[in-house]
């Protein structure tokens, strides 16, 4: 199993959905897309063994993978939607404020940008309390975290994991709980978190300085804004945004537990 299949507890969520032990998910026979992207579903720099299956979230991603020579791409839908299908309904409490996900770096790339300028724009735009959800990479940076703490509530859903170690297997559970507490979800770049929020009924928004990763090709970020205008801006149409988000997450291709066990190679002992 490629270690990225465990990121965010994805394999654990799928195991639970399939009626298997979520604490010890079986080996996935291939590569599972672990985050929304605009290429073939694999993370940047992921080594690919030719001929191995790629399990992608949506038909759009499958077509891109095919065009890039990935002939073994299969649509399964986002693990977050499988979690949502298993989760108890919300507790009915009224949603309040905005959960804001600043664009983040990771082990291989650090981010450059003016956090204070972004915070100022956020506070000028949002009309309620703001929860800043920092990715673990920025959350562990005391200087960055304290800057956001001066502006509002700051949380982190947990550690993504690396090479099967220290994965917070409840990452998506924490995220679902927080999204359901907020009326809006926003970021300075279109991301998995914004799509998840739209899927659970938050009003999505993407605005502000997109910042930049070290060595990043900025044309990709620009293309994203041109390709998904319905998800960008401080107040996009929530109906159109939700429809687009569900398509990107693969809401129309979710498999039954029996089907998913077969697809992932879990049907046999």
Description:
The structure is a single chain. This protein has 11 helices and 10 strands. It is α/β, with parallel strands linked by helices. The chain folds into 2 domains: 90 residues, no CATH class; 146 residues, Rossmann fold. It has a 5-stranded parallel sheet with strand order 7-6-4-8-9, with helices on both faces. A 3-stranded parallel sheet has the order 1-2-3, covered by helices on one side. Helix 1 crosses helix 3 and helix 8 crosses helix 10. It is globular and about 55 Å long. 42% of the residues are buried.
**Proportion of residues in extended strands:** 5-15%
Please give the radius of gyration in angstroms. Answer: 18 Å
What's the CATH topology label of the largest domain? Rossmann fold
**Distance between the first and last residues' Cα:** 16 Å
At CATH's second level, what is the architecture of the largest domain? 3-Layer(aba) Sandwich
- The helix/strand order is HEEHEHEEHEHHEHEHEEHHH
How many domains?
Answer: 2
Mean pLDDT: 90
Annotation, overall tally of beta strands? 10
Provide a concise account of the structure shown:
The chain is of the alpha/beta class. Helices cover 36% and strands 12% of the residues.
């Amino acid at each position: 199993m490629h270690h990225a299949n465990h990121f965010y507890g994805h394999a654990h969520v799928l195991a639970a959905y399939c009626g298997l032990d979520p604490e010890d998910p079986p080996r996935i026979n291939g590569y599972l897309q672990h985050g929304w992207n605009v290429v073939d579903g694999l993370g940047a720099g992921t080594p690919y063994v030719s001929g191995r299956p790629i399990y992608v979230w949506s038909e759009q991603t499958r077509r891109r993978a095919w065009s890039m020579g990935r002939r073994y791409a299969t649509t399964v839908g986002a693990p977050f939607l499988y979690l949502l299908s298993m989760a108890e309904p919300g507790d009915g409490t009224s949603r309040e404020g905005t959960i804001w996900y600043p664009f983040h770096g990771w082990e291989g790339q650090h981010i450059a940008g003016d956090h204070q300028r972004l915070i100022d724009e956020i506070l000028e735009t949002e009309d309620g309390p703001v929860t800043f959800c920092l990715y673990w990479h920025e959350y562990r940076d005391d200087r960055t975290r304290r800057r956001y703490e001066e502006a509002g509530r700051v949380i982190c859903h947990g550690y993504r994991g690396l090479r099967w170690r220290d994965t917070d297997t409840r990452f998506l559970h924490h995220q679902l709980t927080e999204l359901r507490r907020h009326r809006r979800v926003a970021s300075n770049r279109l991301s998995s978190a914004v799509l998840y929020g739209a899927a659970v009924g938050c009003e999505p928004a993407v605005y502000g300085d997109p910042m930049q990763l070290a060595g990043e090709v900025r044309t990709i970020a620009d293309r994203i804004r041109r390709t998904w205008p319905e998800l960008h801006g401080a107040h996009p149409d929530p109906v159109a945004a939700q429809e687009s988000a569900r398509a990107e997450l693969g809401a129309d291709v979710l498999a039954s537990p029996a089907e998913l066990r077969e697809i992932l190679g879990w049907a046999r002992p």
